[in-house]
Design goal:
With 127 residues, the chain is of the alpha/beta class. It is built from two helices and six strands, in the order βαββαβββ. Strands 2-1-3-4 form a four-stranded mixed beta sheet, covered by helices on one side.
Length: 127
């Protein structure tokens, strides 16, 4: 049940932005072994004059997810993400900055206000 935010400077067509979101979601599903419909994602565009990023970064992907994945799983996520973005959208891998956040399960209020630690998720987070 990751929550994903993508930040990018304005200027790309909507079809490109939709493909960006779809590619990021597909990599999350494949790498984290999530159900296909487990999608909680926002894409935010910024005026280029208000989007200062150290070169070469152009796309920031922040994923908040339940803790439990191994370091190897996370490394695979980083690699798969940049490779798939390059394949699907010709995005140079060095321009993508990925950050993972793993708040404790008790810090997630889901499914009608339940603590995530009290919910049967239906997928494995220990990969």
């Amino acid at each position: 049940m990751p929550v994903t935010q993508i930040n990018i400077a304005q200027g790309k067509p909507k079809i490109y932005l939709r493909q960006l979101m779809d590619t990021v979601h597909r990599v999350l599903v494949d790498t984290l072994q999530l159900p296909e419909d487990d999608k909680n994602m926002r894409l935010q565009e910024f005026d280029p004059e208000l989007f200062d990023a150290k070169k070469p970064y152009e796309i920031f992907i922040e994923v908040s997810m339940f803790p439990g994945r191994s370091k190897q799983c996370k490394k695979q996520l980083y690699t798969s993400m940049v490779q798939q973005l390059q394949t699907d959208l010709s995005i140079e891998p060095t321009t993508v900055f990925i950050i993972l956040y793993e708040p404790p399960m008790e810090n997630w209020g889901i499914r009608g206000g339940q603590s995530a630690e009290d919910v049967v998720l239906g997928f494995n987070i220990h990969l």
